[in-house]
Design goal:
Layout lengths: L1 H16 L10 H5 L13 H4 L11 E6 L2 E9 L6 E2 L4 E2 L2 E7 L6 E16 L12 E18 L2 E20 L9 E21 L4 E8 L2 E13 L13 E8 L2 E8 L5 E10 L6 E6 L9 E4 L5 E13 L2 E10 L17 E11 L4 E18 L6 E18 L1
Antiparallel strand pairs: 1-5, 1-21, 2-3, 2-4, 2-21, 5-6, 6-7, 7-8, 8-9, 9-10, 9-11, 10-13, 11-12, 12-15, 13-14, 14-17, 15-16, 17-18, 18-19, 19-20, 20-21
C-alpha cells in the first residue's frame, strides 16, 4: 500500500515540468515560423523570446493570443492488442504582452504574461494504468516585467524578473475496493510559486543578419499546503489521514538559446534557433507531508534527467504590405531517460511542423494565426517505479490566434 500511495505524489513534477508539458506557445508569429524568435525583433512577444530585442522594436505593442492545445496519446500494454486513449480535452495556453517607450527612444519597458507549462491529460478510470494516473489538470502562469536598452544602433540588451504562479489537480485510483467493488481514489490539489529572470542581447549586422542570445534562469517552484484528498473505505481511513497537506520544491531548469535572423529580400525573413534546456539539474524529488502514517511516508525519488536540445527553423514571406505567410518546424530531444517515462507526460524525441499567416486589419491592428502539429516518436518502456510496461504513441494539435495593437 505504501508504494502505491507514493506513486501519486511522485507523479506531479514529471507531468508538470517534463519536456512534454513545456508547451512553448509564447507568440503566434513565432509559432508560425517554427518557434523561432531569439534572433528576431518581431513584436511584443520579444519580451519572452529575447528581452534584448525589445528596444529595437520600431513601435509600441499591446497584444494577446490563445493557443488551444489538444494532447492525444495512445498506450498499448506489452503483449496485448489493447489500446487506451486519452480523452480529447483542450488546454488553453495564452499570452499577453505590452511594450511601451517614447518614440525613437533608447529604452523600452515591457510586460509579459504567458503560460509556458500546462495541459490536460485524462486517461479515464478504466485503463491499465489507473493506479498511476486517471487525470491531470495543470496550469502555470508567468509574469515578467522587462526593461530593454539600446546601447547603439546595432546592439541592445534587456532583462526581466519572472514570477511563476501554478496550480495542479491530479487524480489516481487506489486499489482498495468498497462494498460496491469500486476503487478508492486520491486527488492532489495545490498551488505554488517561484521566481526567476530572463535576459538577452540582440545584434544587427550590415550583412542582413541579426543575432540573439538569451538566458532564462531556473525557477524553483514551491508548493505549500497542497491538499491530499482520499476516498477510501471507512475501515482504512486512519491510513489516509484527513485533512492532510504536502509541501515540495521542484526545480524548473534554465534555458539557453541562440538565434539568427536572415533577410535575403524585403519580402523574406529566415530564422534558426537552438535551445539547450538544463534538465540535468533535476536529480531528485522530495515530498514532505504534514501527517504521516506507516502507509504514507515522506519520500525521496531519483529523477536523473538529462539536458535536452531543440533545433528550430522557420520563414516568413510577405506577399503584400498587409499579408504575411509563415512556416517552420523543428526537432526536440527528450529529457526523460529510459525507465522514467510516465503516462502523465509520455515523453520522447519529437518533431513538429508549423504554419501561419498574418494580416494587417488596419494601420494599427494585426491579426495573426498559426497551427502546429507535433509527433512524438513511438516509445516502448517499462517504468522502474510503477512497472507499467507498454508502448506510447502521442500527437499534439495546436491552433492559435492573436490580435495586436501597435503605434
Amino acid at each position: 500500500m505504501r508504494k502505491l500511495l507514493l506513486l501519486l505524489w511522485l507523479a506531479l513534477p514529471v507531468c508538470a515540468f517534463s519536456q512534454g508539458f513545456q508547451v512553448n506557445l509564447e507568440g503566434e508569429k513565432q509559432i508560425g515560423m517554427g518557434h523561432t524568435g531569439t534572433g528576431l525583433a518581431t513584436d511584443g512577444a520579444s519580451v519572452f523570446f529575447n528581452p534584448g530585442a525589445v528596444a529595437m522594436l520600431p513601435e509600441n505593442y499591446v497584444q494577446a493570443g490563445i493557443s488551444p492545445l489538444v494532447f492525444q496519446s495512445v498506450f498499448n500494454p506489452s503483449g496485448t492488442d489493447i489500446q487506451y486513449h486519452t480523452a480529447n480535452k483542450i488546454a488553453p495556453p495564452f499570452t499577453f504582452y505590452g511594450v511601451w517607450g517614447p518614440k525613437a527612444s533608447w529604452w523600452k519597458f515591457g510586460l509579459g504574461i504567458y503560460t509556458p507549462y500546462g495541459g490536460l491529460t485524462d486517461w479515464g478510470n478504466n485503463w491499465q494504468g489507473k493506479y498511476v494516473l486517471e487525470s491531470l489538470d495543470l496550469k502555470a502562469i508567468y509574469f515578467q516585467p522587462t526593461i530593454s536598452i539600446k546601447l547603439a544602433d546595432f546592439v541592445s540588451i534587456g532583462g526581466g524578473f519572472v514570477y511563476n504562479r501554478g496550480s495542479v489537480d491530479l487524480t489516481q485510483a487506489i486499489p482498495l475496493s468498497n462494498s460496491a467493488g469500486q476503487d478508492g481514489q486520491a486527488e492532489l490539489k495545490g498551488t505554488g510559486h517561484g521566481y526567476g529572470w530572463n535576459a538577452g542581447i540582440y545584434f544587427k549586422t550590415e550583412a542582413n543578419f541579426t543575432v540573439g542570445i538569451t538566458h532564462r534562469s531556473g525557477v524553483s517552484t514551491t508548493i505549500n499546503n497542497g491538499n491530499a484528498i482520499f476516498s477510501v473505505p471507512a475501515s482504512l481511513q486512519s491510513a489516509f489521514p484527513q485533512p492532510n497537506t504536502f509541501s515540495s520544491t521542484i526545480p524548473l531548469p534554465a534555458v539557453n538559446s541562440v538565434g539568427i535572423g536572415f533577410y535575403p529580400t524585403s519580402k523574406w525573413t529566415l530564422a534558426l534557433d537552438v535551445n539547450i534546456t538544463s534538465w540535468s539539474s533535476y536529480k531528485t524529488l522530495e515530498f514532505d507531508y504534514k501527517t504521516t502514517t506507516p502507509d504514507l511516508q515522506n519520500s525521496i525519488s531519483p529523477r536523473d534527467y538529462q539536458d535536452a536540445f531543440t533545433f528550430r527553423a522557420g520563414a516568413q514571406y510577405k506577399s503584400s504590405p498587409r499579408t504575411a505567410w509563415r512556416f517552420g518546424g523543428g526537432f526536440a530531444t527528450t529529457a526523460v531517460l529510459d525507465g522514467y517515462v510516465t503516462p502523465e507526460a509520455p515523453d520522447a524525441n519529437r518533431m513538429y511542423f508549423t504554419g501561419g499567416f498574418g494580416y494587417m486589419l488596419t494601420k494599427h491592428f494585426d491579426l495573426d494565426a498559426s497551427f502546429e502539429y507535433e509527433h512524438l516518436l513511438s516509445r516502448t518502456q517499462t517504468n522502474i517505479q510503477y512497472q507499467l510496461s507498454g508502448t506510447y504513441d502521442t500527437n499534439v494539435y495546436i491552433p492559435g490566434i492573436s490580435l495586436s495593437y501597435h503605434w
